[in-house]
Amino acid sequence: MLIPQPYLLFLGDVTDPLSAKTAKGIQQWRPELCVGQHRLTSETVSLGLNDLTLEQAKAQGAKTLVLGTANAGGFIPENWLSTLSQALDLGFNLASGMHQRLVDYPELSAKAEANQCQLFDVRHYDEPLKVGNGLPREGKRLLTVGTDCSVGKMYTSLALEKEMNRQGLNTEFCATGQTGILISGRGISIDAVVADFISGATEAISPSFSDHEWDVIEGQGSLFNPSYAGVSLGLLHGAQADALVLCHEVGREHIRHLPHMAVPAIEATLVANLQAAKLTNPNAKFVGISLNTSALTEAEAQALCRQWEQQYQLPVTDPVRFGIASIVDKLHSL
After folding, report:
1. Cis bond leading into 106, ω under 30°?
2. Where does the record place a coiled coil (predicted)?
C-alpha cells in the first residue's frame, strides 16, 4: 500500500477532539504532507490548519483526501458520501482507516475507476502474502513492544525515527497499523492479516535494504494481552529485530478491557519478548524502556526513570516529557 501525498485532511462534522486522533497524528508527525483541512461545519473540530475547499486543496497540490477521524463502529457516515464523491470527480484519491470499506460503496468505486483514482482502505489488506521464513536479511531493525496495547508503541516508534535521523542515523518508519500507515503513506495493517502470514507480512514491510541504516517497526499489542498476543508474536518473529524498546504506561492497573488480567511485570515482559525475538535474530537485545508517565508529576516521573535505569540497566525515558535521545544514543554502538 503506497498512498499518494500530500494530503487534505477531512474532518467531516465531528466535534469530539478525540475522534480526530488520526488526523492529529498525521499533522504532528508529517506536517509537511498536510496541505490543509476540510470541514463540513464551523463547529467541527479544527487542527488549526487552513480550511480549504476541495478545489483549493487540489490547486495547491493535494493528491489524497484522508478521512482523519474515527467513530464508534468505524462506519462512514452517509452525509459524507457526497463530499467523497465530489473529491473523486476532482481527481483526489481517498484513504480511510474505518472498518467500513470505501470500496463497498458502488458509487465511490465507479467514480474512482472513471477518474483513475484509488481507494485506500488502510485497515484492510487483501493482497497476496508469503509466510515468514526467518532468513537473515540485510539492514538493521528496531521493534517497539509493550506490556499491553495502547501504551505508546506508535508514538515511541515515530519519536525514535525522528531522533535517529536527527542524530545522523538514516532511518525509516515501518507502519503496521492504520494510523501509522496514513502518517507514513505505506505499510500493512497487521491486525488485518490472516494469522499464518503475520511474520511474512512483517518481512514484507521491512525487506532487505542497503539504502539506509535502520528500519523502526511499529509494534502492536502485547505478548501478555490474550486478545492480541498472536499479532505481537508474529511481529517479533518477522521483524528479526536487532534492537527492542519496551513501552509501558505507568499506573495502568490491568490489561486494557480485561480487568481480570493484571499488567505484567517489567522483568517478565523483557524476558518473554527477548526470548521470542531470538528465534529469528539470536543477537536481539533491549536498548531502552519508553514510559507514558502522565499519571505522575514531572518530578515523580524523573525519579522513576532514574530508578528503573539502575534496576534494569537500560535507558528509561518518557519521550513526551524528556525526549528519547538517551535510547538513540545506545544505537550508535550496534
Report:
1. no
2. none
Whole-model pTM?
A: 0.92
Ordered domains of the chain (ranges, CATH): 7-121 (3.40.50.720), 140-331 (3.40.50.300)
Please give the Cα distance from 180 to 186 (Å, whole number).
8
DSSP 94-119: EEE-SSS-GGG-HHHHHHHHHTT--E
Q: What is the pLDDT of residues 148-157, one digit of tens each?
A: 999 999 999 9
142, three cell numbers: 528496531
Tens of pLDDT, residue by residue over 203-249, are 999 999 999 999 999 999 999 999 999 999 999 999 999 999 999 99
DSSP code for 263: P
**Contact (CB, 8 A) for 327 and 160:** yes
Three-state SS for 123-154 is CCCCCCCCCCCCCCCCCEEEEEEECCCCCCHH
220: amino acid identity, one letter: Q
Quick one: which H or E segment has residue 120?
A: strand 119-121
* Cα gap 107→31, rounded to integer Å: 32
- Rounded to a whole number of angstroms, the CA Rg of the chain reads 20
- Here the cell at position 242 is 536487532
**Residue 259: all three cell numbers together:** 480487568
